[in-house]
UniProtKB/TrEMBL annotation:
NCBIfam families listed in its UniProt record: PRK02853.1
Superkingdom, natural source: Bacteria
The protein's name: UPF0262 protein
Region (Disordered): 1-43
InterPro entries: UCP032146
């Protein structure tokens, strides 16, 4: 079973409690490009952004202050770019670029499963079928999160839930290309 704790834990910030999840990221920006392939995909993207902003652990290495941060995500030259900025004044702090190669198969499989799920819901294929598809989707999602967290290791420490939500956004960006 994967370790789902913060990969590079930092001390909890002032005011963090079990009732109030930590929020290192306070703003997420995605490029306004081509429209998403479906309303379902757009809803998935929006939910990932909302969930990220409600609670996340995102600790860039080599950044002089502990946050909060703004994150701009985009794809450039076959790479995922994480442009990390000061959450208060927008000043650039660090950029991290990750090759998409290790994610391509997962992104493709994830998108096919999401489309299957969307079709199953639209065609009323039954709760058991929808749940089976959803289990497959969660498995791919978890695998993508593990790869993303591993690729970020030493550059940005994230917890498992933050990595899952970021993987959703990676898939959403890939759909728009």
């Amino acid at each position: 079973m994967p370790d789902r704790r913060l990969a590079d834990p930092a001390p909890a910030g002032a005011g963090e409690s079990a009732a109030q999840p930590p929020c290192d990221l306070i703003r997420i920006e995605l490029p306004e490009a081509a429209p998403p392939p479906s309303p379902y995909a757009e809803a998935d993207r929006r939910q990932a952004v909302r969930d990220l902003l409600c609670g996340n652990r995102f600790r860039p290495a080599g950044v002089p202050r502990p946050g909060p941060f703004a994150l701009r995500l985009w794809l450039r030259d076959g790479r995922l770019v994480l442009d990390i900025r000061d959450g208060q004044d927008g000043r650039p702090l660090r950029a991290v670029a990750l090759a998409l190669g290790p994610f391509r198969r997962l992104i493709k499989d994830y998108q096919m499963v999401v489309e299957s799920h969307e079709r199953a819901v639209a065609e009323h294929q039954g709760e058991a079928r929808i749940q089976a598809i959803d289990m497959g989707r969660r498995g791919l999602h978890n695998e993508g999160a593990e790869i993303l967290a591993e690729r970020l290791k030493g550059r940005v420490a994230v917890d498992f839930e933050t990595a899952r939500r970021l993987f959703t956004l990676v898939c959403a960006l890939h759909q728009r290309v």
